[in-house]
């Protein structure tokens, strides 16, 4: 990895987009994540897009992510698009996400697109969502696209979703593309659906693309919650062109719930693309 970083830093001076994938890399050490730091005096100022994928690299822990975060914030001062995938890196905790969020927001206040994937990281909780939301609201107001993915079983609750989406709604006035995933967050209930849809729809009226994934969340037990969720979106997000709502493997959603959600979306006349997924 250090050889790759050396090549980037010393030879490929015109790079604008850079991506590395280390899928299921089981031999990455914490120190090894500083692979851009081979030449400390060189900065890749032309790189605008940075994409790093560490999915299922289970040896990655908090200390390693802190090293990587420190490294990239020094190497790439002019980023506009950052995408980091740490899904199924089960040793990461709230500390990792809090440190990452703070450094990203402090380094790139003019960032346009941000994707953070911490799906299947069971040690991520409401505390991390609150920290991310605060940094987004206070420092990353230029974002036009935001994608966040979590999947933490029971450690993410209605309160965490409410706080995160309230801060997104209050702090990101230029957002046109939003994606939120809460895969397998078993503690979520109808309250999360209603607060999320209210916070987003009342503040982010310029949204054109919205994707919400609640796969394997089994707390949506009343049709009224889905109906209110759909109404909030339909009545306020009148500029939506693409809408993707995913409720796969949500065992407690019945036919009446599907009908209630579908009926509530009939006023979205600007839609060009609609996906409703209830796969079981």
- End-to-end gap: 41 Å
Q: Uncertain regions: pLDDT < 50 for 5+ in a row?
A: none
Strand order of the largest sheet: 1-2-3-4-5-6-7-8-9
Class from secondary-structure proportions: alpha/beta
Q: Radius of gyration, rounded?
A: 19 Å
Q: What series of H and E elements makes up the topology?
A: HEEHEHEHEHEHEHEHE
Please, how many helices? Answer: 8
Short note summarizing the structure:
The chain has 280 residues and is α/β, with parallel strands linked by helices. It has helices at residues 2-10, 62-75, 94-107, 126-139, 158-171, 190-203, 223-236, 255-264; strands spanning 17-21, 49-53, 81-85, 113-118, 145-150, 177-182, 209-213, 242-246, 273-277. Helix 4 (126-139) runs parallel beside helix 5 (158-171) and helix 5 (158-171) runs parallel beside helix 6 (190-203).
Describe the protein in words:
About 35% of the residues lie in helices and about 15% in strands. The N and C termini lie far apart (about 40 Å). Strand 4, helix 4 and strand 5 (about 145-150) form a beta-alpha-beta unit. It has a nine-stranded parallel sheet with strand order 1-2-3-4-5-6-7-8-9, with no helix packed on it. It is of the alpha/beta class and about 280 residues long. Helix 6 packs parallel to helix 7 (about 225-235). The chain has helices at about 1-10, 60-75, 95-105, 125-140, 160-170, 190-205, 225-235, 255-265; strands spanning about 15-20, 50-55, 80-85, 115-120, 145-150, 175-180, 210-215, 240-245, 275.
């Amino acid at each position: 990895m250090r050889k790759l970083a050396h090549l980037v830093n010393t030879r490929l001076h015109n790079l604008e987009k850079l991506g590395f994938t280390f899928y299921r890399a089981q031999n990455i050490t914490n120190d090894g994540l500083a692979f851009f730091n081979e030449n400390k005096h060189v900065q890749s100022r032309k790189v605008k897009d940075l994409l790093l994928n560490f999915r299922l690299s289970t040896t990655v822990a908090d200390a390693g992510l802190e090293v990587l975060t420190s490294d990239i914030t020094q190497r790439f001062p002019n980023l506009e698009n950052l995408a980091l995938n740490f899904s199924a890196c089960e040793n990461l905790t709230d500390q990792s996400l809090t440190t990452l969020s703070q450094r990203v927001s402090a380094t790139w206040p003019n960032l346009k697109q941000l994707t953070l994937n911490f799906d299947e990281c069971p040690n991520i909780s409401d505390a991390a969502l609150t920290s991310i939301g605060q940094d987004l609201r206070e420092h990353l107001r230029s974002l036009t696209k935001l994608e966040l993915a979590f999947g933490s079983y029971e450690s993410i609750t209605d309160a965490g979703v409410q706080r995160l989406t309230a801060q997104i709604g209050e702090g990101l006035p230029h957002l046109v593309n939003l994606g939120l995933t809460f895969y397998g967050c078993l503690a979520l209930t109808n309250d999360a659906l209603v607060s999320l849809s209210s916070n987003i729809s009342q503040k982010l009226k310029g949204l054109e693309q919205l994707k919400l994934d609640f796969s394997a969340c089994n707390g949506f037990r009343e049709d009224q919650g889905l109906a209110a969720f759909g109404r909030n979106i339909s009545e306020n997000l009148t500029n939506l062109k693409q809408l993707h709502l995913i409720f796969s493997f949500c065992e407690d959603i019945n036919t009446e719930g599907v009908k209630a959600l579908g009926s509530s979306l009939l006023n979205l006349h600007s839609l060009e693309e609609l996906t409703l997924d209830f796969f079981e």
